[in-house]
Amino acid sequence: MSSLQFHVDAASPKAPFDHYWEMCVGACHGYTALREDYRIQLKKAKEDLGFQYVRFHGILNDDMSVVREVSPGEYEYNFVNIDNILDYLLSIKMKPFMELSFMPTPFASGEQTCFYYKGNVTMPKSFELWDSFIKELMTHLKERYGIEELETWFFEVWNEPNLDFFFAGTQKDYFTLYAHTAKAIKEVGENLKVGGPATANNEWISDLVKYCRENDAPLDFVSTHHYPSDDPNWNQNMHLDDFFGEGGALPNGEIDRRGLLTKMVKIACREAGDIPLYYTEWNTSANEGDEFHDTPYSAALVAKTLLDNYGYVEGYSFWTFSDLFEEHGQVTGEFRGGFGLQTIHGIPKPVYRAFELLHQLGAERLPAVEEQGTVGIFPAMGKNGELCILAYNQQMLDRPIAEEKIKISIKNISDASATIQRIDDAHANAKKAWEEMGAPVYPSAAQVEALKAVSALKEEPLCVSKTEEGISLEFALPAYGVALVKLV
Known about the structure:
Oligomer: single chain
Largest sheet: 8 strands, antiparallel
Shape: globular
Structural class: alpha/beta
Number of helices: 12
């Protein structure tokens, strides 16, 4: 097998490297944040991966007991469960990216609900009631946490209102709801950050920007969602030439889906203009139950995507940190293709370890990603000033991919020792070990601990050869593999 030849200049000018993907991570509906196992896993993800904010659905759902109609037309508010969650987040040095959803039943104009937990997705029956409630909630948060703290939070209006499943109304209805909510928030604090449209598939961005400008509605940030499993024809108003650009087709005329998320991001960035852009949901597919969520495939796709999207967005929130997830009830099984970075018992998946490798990188990078075929390398400085090289071997599932031998020549470095950490079929792959156990549906405590040990990254020595210009190193990178090399 011939080697792919990569070159790195250790003396190259350094550029800032912001870990924008660590800004936020997703979670299930609000009530699950009261669970002890949820909190243990979130704290671990915070400590290992550096997440700063968390976003979840349903903070206003009936299971949160926020609004109660005590008599016809008389309402009582109860923010104790919201306070409980927010107090915990602050105690572990995290903050809320607060999705204001769904409609409390006493305020709802209809009965349509979503998910197992029955979040009401209808418009308010009275904007007078809704506006007053939002102001009351924000005033309570201001009094409890202080305006300076609140000004560091984000308030996002609703979730995916462009989908009938999540919103029983039109685009015009959502824009009206958005404007009322945003203005109510600003009445409590003019510097509080509010935004939307929190749409699926990158939709309604330019429409909301235009609406807010024409109707004097506050819009501090734009938020949207996407997944690579989204069909590229999802928006019939989007021309494929605009979507894919030059080089968007393979020689046989097929669409090249590799890098699809970055193509989407560039368009969304252009539509948002000078307004900060946040992706408040994304994953390696939109389908809960896709087996590859639990495999190295997702680790490689995450590594490539996060490096490719650098510089386009302010935040990029992975959906979700855990398989403690109840949209369809808590589904049985340990490795069941859930959205989470961890299984229900907190076993880190390969994709968790990809975030962990990226977290080991510091605040400076060398020139950008270099790709050859399915392999890319990214040189950056580590947190202790050491040179690091992140490598991935990524391709979409329906395209050819194979193990590749890599040779990296590094000049302007006279001597160094090297280590490598790997994610692939044989490394940091707890699902494979679980299958070898017989795929227990309810693993014992001892089995869970064994699987956690298998999932861990291991730092191993890597041979370094001296060259006339510096050093070189070689290693094999399996299909869907990710590796981090450190030189010290």
